[in-house]
Amino acid sequence: MANRLTKIYTRTGDQGKTGLADGSRVDKFHARIESLGNIDELNSIIGILLTEKLPSDKKAILERIQHDLFDIGGELSIPNHTKIDDKKVDFLENSLDDMNNELQPLKEFILPGGSKTSSYCHLARTVCRRVERDLFKLAQTDKVNEASLKYINRLSDTLFVLARFLNKINQFNDIFWKKDI
Q1: Residue 14's pLDDT is what?
Q2: Phi/psi of residue 27, each to 5°?
Q3: What is the percentage of the chain residues whose pLDDT exceeds 90?
Q4: At 18, phi and psi to the nearest 5?
């Protein structure tokens, strides 16, 4: 791999614009850049989650998710470029179903919390929902890969189920919402 980042700062963003990988420049507050930043935040939270003790198969899922999120960022950096496809969405759905099959059906709403790893999953899930809102907002004016939109939607569901799964294996109870507390 060639050295791509020989100099970290370029000073080209000092006037409030940033460059996309296709050479075009947009405002730093453009919806595309906002989406990129939120995907980066989500990926960083998953990175924190990966510092915790996790089953190796769940760690492998999260590492794959990090790469997929980076690819979605690449799609946003290069307009009309696609990396995410329905096979990646299927992977998330299968992973989610496998974990969910080991859990008791939910009869109540749950609150974020329980174990620390579960709490990190819930934090990632909430940021993932923000990413989803951002991408659908961007899709109102710019082309966004439909598979990426599906992927982000399934990812938030996957993170929810993973949070419950991690509570179970770490012997923590889910925290149920109480209507009249």
Answers
A1: 59
A2: -65, 145
A3: 76
A4: -140, 155
Which sequence spans correspond to the domains of the chain? 27-176
CA angle (125 as vertex; 123, 130 as ends), nearest 5? 100
User: 10 or 165, which is more confident?
Assistant: 165
Distance spanning both ends of the chain, measured CA to CA? 57
CATH for 27-176? 1.20.1200.10
**What is the C-alpha radius of gyration for the chain, rounded to an integer number of angstroms?**
18
- pTM reported for the whole predicted model: 0.89
DSSP per-residue letters across 30-47: SHHHHHHHHHHHHHHHHH
The predicted-structure confidence for 61-112, as pLDDT tens digits, reads as follows: 999 999 999 999 999 998 889 999 999 999 999 999 999 999 999 989 999 9
Q: Which residues contact 20 (CB under 8 A, 6 or more apart)?
A: 26, 32, 77, 78, 79
Strand partners of residue 110:
176
CA angle 90, 125, 16 (to 5 degrees): 105
